[in-house]
Amino acid sequence: MNTKSIPRLIPALLLTGVACTGHAQVLEISYDTPTLDRWNYPFNGAPGTRFEMTSFGALEQPGFDDHDAQVLLGFDTAGDIASGLGTEEYQVLSATITMTVSNHNDFRYDPTHDTFDTYGLLGEPFDTDAGRPLNLWLTGYRDGLDQTTYHETSPFGFVADVFPAQGMRSAFAAIFDDQGVATDISNNLKEQFDAVPLAIGQTNAVNPGDLVPAETTFSFTFTPCQLGEHLELARMLDLGQIRFSISSLQAASGSPDGGGGVVYPIWFSRENPLSPILGYAPTLDIRVRVGSAGDYNGDGFKNFLDVSEFLADFGNADPAADINGDCNFNFLDVSGFLSEYSSN
Question: Which are the contacts of 10, defined by CB distance < 8 A and separation ≥ 6?
Answer without folding.
Answer: 307, 338
